[in-house]
Amino acid sequence: MELINSNPQPIVRFSWTVRDNEYVYMDTWEMTQEEWDALTPEDIEKRQQEQYAKWREHMANPGA
Q1: How many Å apart are CA 8 and CA 17, to the nearest integer?
Q2: CB 35 within 8 A of CB 27
Q3: CA gap 23, 55 in Å, rounded
Q4: Model confidence at 60, in pLDDT bands (50, 70, 90)?
Q5: pLDDT per position as a tens digit, 27-42
Q6: How far apart are alpha carbons 62 and 55 in whole angstroms?
Q7: How confident is the model at residue 21 (pLDDT cuts 50, 70, 90)?
Q8: Which residues, 6+ apart, have CB-to-CB distance to 26 below 8 Å?
Q9: How far is Cα of residue 51 from the mean position of the Cα atoms in its chain?
């Protein structure tokens, strides 16, 4: 099977890292250029904080 993208769009990869006293959290987002251009710096910061908070919550209670 061959998948063909009939409407190719450039992909933006945005990688970021957070280091705290216990862990290093690394994440990469992939999105189209249009999606990236629509984000404000505030949107990016909010999304990073939300994802990091969810990850820290999971690390504090991994079996939940």
Answers
A1: 29
A2: no
A3: 11
A4: confident
A5: 999 999 999 999 999 9
A6: 10
A7: confident
A8: 15, 16, 17
A9: 7
3-class secondary structure per residue, the chain: CCCCCCCCCCEEEEEEEEECCCCEEEEEEEEEHHHHHHCCHHHHHHHHHHHHHHHHHHHHCCCC
Instruction: Supply 23's token pair.
Output: 């862990």
Query: Are the C-beta atoms of residues 9 and 33 closer than 8 Å to each other?
Result: yes
Say how many residues make up the chain: 64
